What we know:
Layout: E1 2-3, H1 8-23, E2 33-37, H2 43-57, H3 65-72, E3 75-79, H4 87-102, E4 108-112, H5 119-128, E5 141-145, H6 153-164, E6 172-174, H7 182-192, E7 206-214, H8 224-249, H9 258-271, E8 272-274, H10 279-282, E9 283-289, E10 291-293, E11 296-298, E12 316-323, E13 332-338, E14 345-352, E15 361-366, E16 369-374, E17 379-385, E18 389-397, E19 405-413, H11 414-417, H12 425-435, H13 444-463, E20 470-473, H14 480-487
The structure holds 6-O-phosphono-beta-D-glucopyranose.
Amino acid sequence: MIFGASGDLTARKLLPALYTLWKTRFLPDKSQIIGVARREKTDDEFRQEMFDACQQASRTGEISADEWAEFSANLYYKRVDLDDPEQFQKLKSDVESLEAKAGLSGRRLVYMATDPSLFLPSVTALSEAGMIPDHTDPNWLRVVFEKPFGHDLESAIELSSGLKSMLHEDQIYRIDHDLGKETVQNILLFRFGNSIFEPLLNRNHVDHIEITVAESQGMERGRGGYYDKSGALRDVLQNHVLQLLCLIAMEPPALFRGNEIRDEKLKVLQTLSPGASKIDDWAIAGQYTAAKVGNEDAKGYREEERIPPDSTRETFVAMEVAVDNWRWSGVPFYLRTGKRLPKRVSEIAIQFKHPPLNLFTTVECEGDICELVEARPNMLIFRIQPQEAISLKTSTKRPGMQYQIHPVTMDFKYSDEFVTGLPEAYERLLLDVLRGDSTLFTRSDELEAAWAFVDPVLKRWETEPDFQPEPYAAGTWGPKKAEELLSKDGREWRKPLTEKNG
Length: 502
Ligand code: BG6
């Protein structure tokens, strides 16, 4: 059952993922998919909408009419007001009769793709309708929660404890769709499935680490209403960026199993500390302003649909944080995410220390101006999207009669190595819920540790009257203070996906 089936997520991600799982034979035979939402709609109308959505999302071209007919025979729509518990009795009997017709046992998955305010009321109504079996019962119910899971530490704890009175932790799947991305999963395999890199990933060799999750889009598809309540810190940094940080910084787990991996991620979150004593010196907020981006006149955030003209909501955040443990002590982690940046790109860049002696130099030119520069430090880059890759930047001798260094890149590009495309994050994650594997989902203690870390920043930005995010022009890499975060230490942000910086 998908609660919130009229929404954007159902059409753009969930149904296309379920269709692909069905087509590739990962979905159990006879599975029924039931869209649940408030709007009046017939099964056929829902099927047509979902056909259009799957067609639009399809990576493999047109969906054949025969295949769709077969798939959609098990696709239904039920109208339910999720905040009206009385309607759940009817939902229960409808679901039971569909199951009886198909000869299904009653193993159920509920995907909460709704407004977060409906999480607790919906689960309460499921519970009161007798739809939540004991977690040891073979007829299970698992519930997936879309983010945001809470809007600060206090509300996340409240939500968790409310849910725990009705659901066992094994039945709760808090989704962070970044963890379903192939390239994100590969971080652990690359680190712990090879022996030559891991000995270098520590304070002895690493100068600093940058994590960038940049988006070029603004408030398209009516997202303004949600975004202005959320902002970059809650929307992406607290979850996606901190999860990436955990994967790159964590210790090897004792076993490659859900809880052991999450134990290690939790330890990273518990050792996170601010990069400076005053919040404004380590956490920078920005907000985009109108500018020409390519040929397009991009609006400023305050001119976007459903955004108040005096909004102080941040559309960009940069942070300097420390992971205060034996391995990483003294290594700064610079994090940044934002909307309306020059490109959509997510990557982790590990910059190693300079060689101890500068024996070699090289000539670098920009236009007509050339200068003699020292070796660039080595860098290991995990490109999560687009042009998924892992690159290692090293120096080599430029052919010729002198010793001149030349930076080169050794690349592993997914598109060169694998002919099949990468699976969509939601395909993998939905399948994992069906399998009962919660490795790629966030545990409540992890989530609370992440909220605990960002909470003081949220409080500063939301409750102190003197706070204003620093403006940056749409299409640029964020406000000036974000640059200063690194330049004060003689460093600068990488410019991902530029010719020089591939
Ligand atoms: C979502 C955020 O979690 O991730 C969105 O709410 C953001 O604001 C999206 O656009 C980015 O996802 P992806 O998979 O395109 O990186």
